[in-house]
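Exam revision sheet. Question 4 asks you to relate a sequence to its structure. Input first:
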Amino acid sequence: MSTLRLPQYLPHLLLAASLVGSGGATGAPRPTPRRPAVKPAPAPRHTFALGRDQFLLDGKPLQMISGELHYPRIPREAWRSRLKMAKAMGLNTIGTYVFWNVHEPQPGKYDFTGNNDVAAFVKMAQEEGLWVILRPSPYVCAEWEFGGYPYWLQNVPGLKVRSQEPQYVAAYTRYLQAVGKQLAPLQVARAGPC
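Answer key, structure tokens:
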């Protein structure tokens, strides 16, 4: 049986979000035309690792207190209020699936816009001071249509989902690369929120 190799920038199970301020006070006066705006300091980069018996953020223990919010199931206009409620409940982390069938409704046609803008969701979580655990599929859950697989996989002769079948592995790899383009810049080691 061959081993599935994925690009380095796509950790399959966990992407942690960095806690970064919004870069400026809300309602602050705009600078006058004579005085240029001061650029905010670059966001700090973090290290995230698995210690002997705990997660480590910048070498210090991190306990993730997490709840699930699935961005495609929530109207985009409600994302921020839901994230604020999660923070108010004492959570410091949000977990979410990245739904393959939502993002690749047709072979090779990717949708990361509107309610499917996972990068915007992750950035918003960062703005609210939350970490993010992403699970980029392929299978997400039994209550989601076809487990989150795109329906069109069923129409490819010989393709077997949840296997090492080459057509399936190739389709999944292409999908993960598309997800990586959206989320790689947002990884904790790159001062991002996931």
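Marking note for examiners. DSSP finds four helices and six strands in the chain.
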